[in-house]
Amino acid sequence: MKILIVYATSEGQTRKISRFMEEVLQAKNHSVVIADATEDPPSPEKFDAVLIGSSIHIQKYHSSIKDYIMKNLDELNIKHSAFFSVSMAIASDIEEEHKEVEKIAQHFLDQTGWKPNETHHIAGALKYTQYDYFKKLIMRMIAKKEGGSTDTSKDHEYTDWDAVRSFVLDFAK
Predict the structure, then answer these.
(1) Which residues pair with residue 61 across a beta bridge?
(2) Within its chain, how far is the Cα of 107 from the centroid?
(3) Could you read off the pLDDT of 64-73 as tens digits, one per residue?
(4) What is the DSSP-derived secondary structure letter of residue 72?
(5) Residue 23: phi, psi to the nearest 5?
(6) In whole angstroms, how far apart are CA 159 and each of 11, 17, 63, 97?
(7) Which of 36, 79, 84, 166 could form a disulfide with 53, with the two C-beta atoms 3.0–4.6 Å apart?
(8) Residue 60 to residues 10, 100, 117, 131, 172: CA-CA distances in angstroms?
(9) Against a cut of 0.70, is the pTM above it?
(10) What is the per-residue pLDDT for 138?
(11) Residues 8, 16, 107, 166: is their CA dihedral positive or negative?
């Protein structure tokens, strides 16, 4: 299959996840094009399937992803497609956090009118070394509340790579 992956990222974890998906798919002999939503990604028209992903920040997805979906809505709604949502809340043991992420994703999909074949939630990373002083304090406070690491001297990755591999392989079947 010819597969398009379009992503938007803030600290780079969604890019890392997208590149991992690309590698997994290419290892299964799929042709893959990967594109950052902020850099004029290609239309989904010439692809058999499309994966679109974005991280959540302050309960919203990146505007570049929304713009891409809105611009290509008719084509996306007839393609085999999936939305992957990246957030730290998925790493939480608090069920309400998971429900909130699902609600944010559903609201986003309702707002855009896109009807992907599936939506998959992926845990992100705490990139403490990339945060400014105030963001580091806020993220540390959130991590403490949700049982995440509060060691701000290094980054902490929560992405379940085996689950991402399974998701993308199932998607490509």
Answers:
(1) 56
(2) 16
(3) 999 999 999 9
(4) T
(5) -60, -45
(6) 14, 8, 23, 16
(7) 84
(8) 12, 12, 21, 19, 27
(9) yes
(10) 87
(11) positive
